[in-house]
């Protein structure tokens, strides 16, 4: 689903149309570039890198001004240059690379219960609810007056390592920060350079959220406790973030106009310098190589400093290869549905009752009205016809030729008092609006309703709204919109890593953007809004990361990602494998769900972890045949120039192999090292399972540990021959501790080579 509310659909269109279009550039026209420099070349005469960067541009006619200097996420700067100025800059000693600034796409009362977080035991009490952990939210800003960002119950002292500030601006006073919201900074120079505009004239001169996206994600990850939150009576309860005692630092880089990579880099650079513990970013670049991806570049620096970066997978599913942020050193999060259903009840004149889905945002009176079913009217494809025949009644909408959105729009425009929509589309549970007094029921229930309407003189119906209940649907399922792997940036590493709740998530909203519509003209505001997208899934995972940072401050960024991956649940609430949501439900592959749904309490005590060092990631970059300049654009240092140990075999908690043709038998070996993080001696035995005819073996199949932090090596062998091209085969490896306390699971997947690498050719 789109991330913005319906009244901002124009923003989505702008992002979709403008993103990554070829740009025709005359020599005297200018474009913004992100420039990478080797700081070891800086002459000693300069007292700062910024002064050196500026000096490299002085020889150009009409010396351009630097937009940003970067020193944490990367070494370099962003600047608007003509083609001639760029060519001159390339001759400067210390120049590594430059590429155009690019636009980026922006991709809760019950979800914490769905994830089994509770006050009595597990990760919440063990982590002290992430007390004093600082989460940096890279997004569209914040609405600080929301109850979710009040500081009641918060630790008043700021963490000693915190170096950030609360920056005032247009309609945002720095005094709005408190013990919950401790940092607020905005970055707009890339946007302004692209528009050649003044910030105040386009409303881009403060951290105040004018879109709603950033407020929603920030409250999801670390919002405070708010009683009585709901979306027009739906999802009633106490809202809270996944890490309710964590502190929030907001870095506004996304604007109502567009989002630019140079601004994202500046926000990430500042977050790292400020001393955040976790970075949550619900946006990404599509089809960008790692060495030109601002998230990948900044996240490498963050990873070196122990900061975990959690990023959304994108909303371009369900096709394969649509994922962004497929970065090996980032936690990439897809979206799932939950077991909660928002709905209402249809009561027929004969007393029979049927439950259905709705989010109609009012307590409407649809009581004992005439129930209308007619083959010419019930296609619901003409507002004029509906207005003439069914006005004043409740119409039954049943047509395989007219989609649900069109039917709803026609009913909304017709002025019909109520509607019963018959649909089997499972994606209905991912919707977030109902603009008419309507209810969606299943085809099975629809048969009974139609039978009653046809056979009963003066048939009548009553509809009750604003109901919330659990099940009986299977959950989770992978949301249809959630982008699928393999990653175009690095197909050798399985992405997404995990899925988290992302559909119909209740979180804080802003009063300036309507959250619902009734009919063609009435818009409604609310303090808490339901949103869907991997943007909503990402902060769930970010919140769990914040909890783990407090519970295990000694763990590296890769250790935390490993703990979340190997403890994720591949089964739904019925004990069956998680399925994909959509027109044809099927078992979800690791390309859709990674290892499965995050399980915070199990991640607290994973038993074994797969750790990785910065050099391990560089070995992978070397195997990908990146040039030294491209590697240095990511790592910022010549210390990683050694490619003598180039290898695709990253010590990652998942396994990906490729096949070129169904007639060719695939045999692949992976080598891994696991670190024991339990207490006391332990013995683990390998258990493998496969799907689609794969054969998996492990040597040795038994690992013995005497002490904590011991490491053991093993080799996984993968054999398969596909029945047909384009199939995805998968299975899993589970290390089972002999007492049953720990089960360490890693997905194994076989991907068609032309699917995995076709995307690489388009970068």
Automatic annotation (TrEMBL):
<dbReference type="InterPro" id="IPR000209">
    <property type="entry name" value="Peptidase_S8/S53_dom"/>
</dbReference>
<keyword id="KW-0325">Glycoprotein</keyword>
<dbReference type="GO" id="GO:0009610">
    <property type="term" value="P:response to symbiotic fungus"/>
</dbReference>
<feature type="domain" description="Inhibitor I9">
    <location>
        <begin position="32"/>
        <end position="106"/>
    </location>
</feature>
<feature type="active site" description="Charge relay system">
    <location>
        <position position="213"/>
    </location>
</feature>
<dbReference type="Pfam" id="PF00082">
    <property type="entry name" value="Peptidase_S8"/>
</dbReference>
<dbReference type="InterPro" id="IPR041469">
    <property type="entry name" value="Subtilisin-like_FN3"/>
</dbReference>
<dbReference type="InterPro" id="IPR036852">
    <property type="entry name" value="Peptidase_S8/S53_dom_sf"/>
</dbReference>
<feature type="active site" description="Charge relay system">
    <location>
        <position position="139"/>
    </location>
</feature>
<feature type="domain" description="Peptidase S8/S53">
    <location>
        <begin position="131"/>
        <end position="571"/>
    </location>
</feature>
<dbReference type="Pfam" id="PF05922">
    <property type="entry name" value="Inhibitor_I9"/>
</dbReference>
<dbReference type="InterPro" id="IPR010259">
    <property type="entry name" value="S8pro/Inhibitor_I9"/>
</dbReference>
<keyword id="KW-0720">Serine protease</keyword>
<keyword id="KW-0964">Secreted</keyword>
<dbReference type="GO" id="GO:0005576">
    <property type="term" value="C:extracellular region"/>
</dbReference>
<protein>
    <submittedName>
        <fullName>Subtilisin-like protease SBT1.7</fullName>
    </submittedName>
</protein>
<keyword id="KW-0732">Signal</keyword>
<keyword id="KW-0645">Protease</keyword>
<dbReference type="InterPro" id="IPR015500">
    <property type="entry name" value="Peptidase_S8_subtilisin-rel"/>
</dbReference>
<dbReference type="InterPro" id="IPR023828">
    <property type="entry name" value="Peptidase_S8_Ser-AS"/>
</dbReference>
<dbReference type="Pfam" id="PF17766">
    <property type="entry name" value="fn3_6"/>
</dbReference>
<dbReference type="InterPro" id="IPR037045">
    <property type="entry name" value="S8pro/Inhibitor_I9_sf"/>
</dbReference>
<comment type="similarity">
    <text>Belongs to the peptidase S8 family.</text>
</comment>
<keyword id="KW-0378">Hydrolase</keyword>
<dbReference type="GO" id="GO:0004252">
    <property type="term" value="F:serine-type endopeptidase activity"/>
</dbReference>
<dbReference type="GO" id="GO:0006508">
    <property type="term" value="P:proteolysis"/>
</dbReference>
<feature type="domain" description="Subtilisin-like protease fibronectin type-III">
    <location>
        <begin position="649"/>
        <end position="749"/>
    </location>
</feature>
<dbReference type="GO" id="GO:0009609">
    <property type="term" value="P:response to symbiotic bacterium"/>
</dbReference>
<dbReference type="InterPro" id="IPR034197">
    <property type="entry name" value="Peptidases_S8_3"/>
</dbReference>
<feature type="active site" description="Charge relay system">
    <location>
        <position position="535"/>
    </location>
</feature>
<dbReference type="InterPro" id="IPR045051">
    <property type="entry name" value="SBT"/>
</dbReference>
